[in-house]
Amino acid sequence: xxxxxxxxxxxxxxxxxxxxxxxxxxxxxxxxxxxxxxxxxxxxxxxxxxxxxxxxxxxxxxxxxxxxxxxxxxxxxxxxxxxxxxxxxxxxxxxxxxxxxxxxxxxxxxxxxxxxxxxxxxxxxxxxxxxxxxxxxxxxxxxxxxxxxxxxxxxxxxxxxxxxxxxxxxxxxxxxxxxxxxxxxxxxxxxxxxxxxxxxxxxxxxxxxxxxxxxxxxxxxxxxxxxxxxxxxxxxxxxxxxxxxxxxxxxxxxxxxxxxxxxxxxxxxxxxxxxxxxxxxxxxxxxxxxxxxxxxxxxxxxxxxxxxxxxxxxxxxxxxxxxxxxxxxxxxxxxxxxxxxxxxxxxxxxxxxxxxxxxxxxxxxxxxxxxxxxxxxxxxxxxxxxxxxxxxxxxxxxxxxxxxxxxxxxxxxxxxxxxxxxxxxxxxxxxxxxxxxxxxxxxxxxxxxxxxxxxxxxxxxxxxxxxxxxxxxxxxxxxxxxxxxxxxxxxxxxxxxxxxxxxxxxxxxxxxxxxxxxxxxxxxxxxxxxxxxxxxxxxxxxxxxxxxxxxxxxxxxxxxxxxxxxxxxxxx
Length: 572
Hints:
- This protein is α/β, with parallel strands linked by helices.
- It has three domains: 13-18 and 35-179, 3-Layer(aba) Sandwich (Rossmann fold), CATH 3.40.50.980; 252-458, ANL, N-terminal domain (Rossmann fold); 468-564, ANL, C-terminal domain (GMP Synthetase, Chain A, domain 3).
- Strands 2-1-10-9-11-12-13-14-15 form a nine-stranded mixed sheet, sandwiched between helices.
- Strand 13 and strand 14 form a beta hairpin.
- Helix 1 packs antiparallel against helix 2 (43-60) and helix 1 crosses helix 8 (236-249).
- The radius of gyration is 24 Å and the shape is globular.
């Protein structure tokens, strides 16, 4: 069947599901695998199961209550999300990488009525069920009768059957709920990279705004676009830009089972679009060039890249067909957010025929704030603020980028959160008196309204001479060094008590073979010294520390910087 419909403006998430099902009923919304068997979940399945589940929540007495969901991406994960918020309840998407104690604490803190989880959590949930006295229902997506939690357990099949029976009998209480767009409908406990975890409260108005902004700014996405869903579903960027917007567009998404299957699923599903964080883009880029070098083709490819700059994207894709086959062969766009990305990586992908559109968001803004528009990209920028979202700079005295004033990025609009759950003090700290949200990110806006991020406020290194250094900038330079796989730049005191710029480095394991730590360290220092020659003296790296292990990361693949502050474990 040929689909030609365009998305509608979203008012709330019930309308999103209903209108999408009307337009794309028999179309595949999700494709996924379980136990090596492939499954399809259609747009009509989402609507039907949302109504069954929401009606079941009504029958169980928890409609309008708080429901947590945890685990890998699965159609019933997203169905639970919709069913909860469209009964005016509150959804809590939990990070699957959380420790058991953290899961218990968050569930008790939010006074959750139920938790839905996939089978990877069957055993774990059973172990601490007695520590969750407020949970009325434990709902496994795939029940294991031998490991049933207790008499509060209801399998997802059982719950759906309950809702269907009630709905078929004419009980329309769930369908008749009037959506309150202003109230809290989601609490996102941020895993974060700074060691703090707050519950970000979002409303349907917030999520609808972010969904519409995604659809408008990513106009290249249509009902013919296919998406490989890679990021964890608890990540607001993945939920809003990778699922809510994709559903409104009528797209088909393949739910990636695990990070170890990304390459295999790229080849099998052949997506046209990816929404990613920089670490994935950097990894893909490195693999492409490693493969080119292994074939002794580097000089030839770099020459072709120079010559191809004047060629249309379609022609470039033909020229670099073999290279692009590693990404499925049909990839056209990568939307990337979460951290700065090396400009050279964006330029290389563009040469290959793939546009990398860098954007900026933060969970507290649902999360979309700005994004580069296809055809109007500005390298090094995160693009323009999305329509309806205001952005300005709170100037930091003495901090300039050329003629532009650097300062904290402030945001105002319908994408900005309600506040932090049960934390009025923290909420007050991040809002100005006239209602602007303080992002904690520093940057500047040029005279064409492009936004540039210079660094995270909490990461700024203040040198002994008073100079402010944004470590993200230095890390961008060091990312070009082939021997470095991961790097974090920090300020550390030397023997004289002076704060100096220090690079914590995890070398590429493939480059370590047959070489001692001393040889690796010497080689990396030599490369960093070459980088230093191009930097002002106050920005130069003065010390290098090797690590034996990768940096600890969040599920969205951001390095947890707070674990490095007073912890030298794994360093040499």
